[in-house]
């Protein structure tokens, strides 16, 4: 893509799609990453920047995922507590697996361990169980999230520890 500025949603293709849990990283890490990428001329989709007020999330987010080439899921403490994040991730993994290598996933583990994402610890495992019971979700839907988490964890990612100073 030849764009040198952040894209708008008017059907343009994004180079990067950021998947993140807002309360954990929106005004810190994700904000810095977003501005660093856009300052470098990379066209980035971030839901609070690119979705117009009144736009239906359930239509716009899947389109943005489909129209992106690189996916950066930012796994954080409450990422797995959000069914929106997990739906995004399942679609991201599906798109990347069908792309014959044309779409890439670059995971970031922000203040979580890869074992959390692999569902080897209670952090993500319990969050998904809670969603499943609270929202009365289908087993098929929840299983797709578990598969997506395990698939993404097989990709070498960046581990970022939260600064505690």
Automatic annotation (TrEMBL):
InterPro entries: TIR_dom, Toll_tir_struct_dom_sf. GO terms for molecular function: NAD+ nucleosidase activity, cyclic ADP-ribose generating. PROSITE patterns: TIR. It holds the Pfam family TIR. It catalyses: NAD(+) + H2O = ADP-D-ribose + nicotinamide + H(+). The lineage of its organism: Eukaryota, Viridiplantae, Streptophyta, Embryophyta, Tracheophyta. Keywords: Hydrolase, NAD. The keyword Hydrolase applies. Its EC number is 3.2.2.6. Residues 12-149 form the TIR domain. It comes from the Eukaryota. The keyword Translocase does not apply. This is ADP-ribosyl cyclase/cyclic ADP-ribose hydrolase.
């Amino acid at each position: 893509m030849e764009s040198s500025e952040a894209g708008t949603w008017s059907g343009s293709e994004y180079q990067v799609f950021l998947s993140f849990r807002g309360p954990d990283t929106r005004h810190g890490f994700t904000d810095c990453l977003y501005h660093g990428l856009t300052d470098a001329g990379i066209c980035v989709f971030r839901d609070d920047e690119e979705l117009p007020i009144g736009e239906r999330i359930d239509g716009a987010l899947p389109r943005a995922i489909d129209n992106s080439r690189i996916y950066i899921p930012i796994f954080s403490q409450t990422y797995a507590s959000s069914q929106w994040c997990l739906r995004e991730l399942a679609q991201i993994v599906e798109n990347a697996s069908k792309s014959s290598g044309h779409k890439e996933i670059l995971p970031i583990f922000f203040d979580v361990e890869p074992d959390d994402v692999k569902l080897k610890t209670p952090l993500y495992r319990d969050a998904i169980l809670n969603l499943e019971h609270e929202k009365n979700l289908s087993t098929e839907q929840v299983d797709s999230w578990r598969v997506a988490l395990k698939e993404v964890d097989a990709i070498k990612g960046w581990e970022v520890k939260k600064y505690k100073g």
